[in-house]
UniProtKB/TrEMBL annotation:
The keyword Magnesium applies. The keyword Nucleotide-binding does not apply. The gene is nudJ. It comes from Saccharobesus litoralis. This is Phosphatase NudJ. Its cofactor is Mg(2+).
Amino acid sequence: MFKPNTTVAWVIKCQDKFLLVEEIDDGVNVLNQPAGHLEEDETLLEAAKRELYEETGLQLEPDFLVGIYQSSVPHKNIQYLRFCYGLELKGELLKTAPQDSDIIQALWLTEAEIKQKFKQHRSHLVQTCINDFIAGKRLPLEYIISDR
């Protein structure tokens, strides 16, 4: 039976900068939002908060859902179902301390810097999620219902 990979991600903005992580994927340094896979017995929100902590050291609550994205990687025969959470912070940029050894660094980049590094994006969803955030796409967190 076919099952897509369920993933969670974050778009976090502060002072006109977005939080991304640099990680290694197939031996190449790439940029991604703090993101990862849903684990067994976890809600989507729990997965998102866990991944954010592992990849940045931050413990935050999202304000909204940016969107739900279906994407495929044909050459790997993989499909993803991504739930992207959003948060806009006030004040100073938060200091990060990645807990996951697979993360090279967490960094705050402007929209222009992110676009300039497009070839380093792990997937097209990095820019798509940021574009949707900038466009004001917001879904209430209550739209995701869990029986847990």
